[in-house]
Backbone:
């Protein structure tokens, strides 16, 4: 129990730290951030349940007003802005990413974690984010999709980095990879 609480808190802090660099917000309100890498790592390292819990803790801190999002944003207002779909999608993204890593054990971990990050950390996340942008900005789903297409190459790079970091951690400290412990 204590180890779970510590890991969830550690990864919530990791998501916060990854929001610091870079600090670039595009004209339509969507920031370029490394926080999605943190979401991917929550799933690949902690697994589905713990990864989603870490994201929920982070979002709770944001809702309480802590300026933990890119650009120093926080508070309840961010949950109704253009990026609100992405924020809600983070929980599902971490869960799906972790579930894939937990269940798919036949392939090398780098490949599994990278593919899981692409499916959960990009596919699932974009589904939530695009719908959220469509609703908040009053655009069609295709128009909202066009707004996020430019982020895909960077997010694929983050997914590959998540796969490499997860595999490196598994080699260096196998007991730290909770997504593969089946607990």
Residues:
């Amino acid at each position: 129990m204590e180890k779970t609480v510590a890991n969830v808190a550690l990864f919530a802090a990791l998501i916060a730290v990854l929001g610091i660099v870079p600090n670039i917000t595009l004209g339509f309100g969507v920031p370029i951030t490394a926080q999605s890498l943190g979401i991917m790592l929550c799933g690949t390292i902690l697994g589905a349940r713990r990864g989603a819990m870490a994201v929920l803790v982070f979002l709770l801190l944001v809702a309480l007003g802590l300026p933990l999002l890119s650009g120093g944003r926080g508070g309840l207002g961010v949950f109704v802005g253009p990026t609100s779909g992405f924020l809600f999608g983070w929980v599902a993204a971490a869960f799906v990413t972790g579930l894939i890593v937990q269940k798919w054990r036949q392939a090398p971990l780098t490949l599994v974690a990278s593919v899981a990050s692409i499916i959960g950390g990009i596919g699932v996340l974009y589904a939530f984010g695009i719908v959220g942008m469509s609703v908040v900005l009053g655009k069609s789903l295709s128009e909202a999709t066009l707004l996020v297409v430019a982020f895909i190459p960077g997010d694929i790079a983050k997914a590959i980095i998540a796969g490499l970091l997860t595999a490196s951690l598994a080699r260096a400290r196998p007991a730290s990879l909770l997504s593969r412990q089946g607990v």
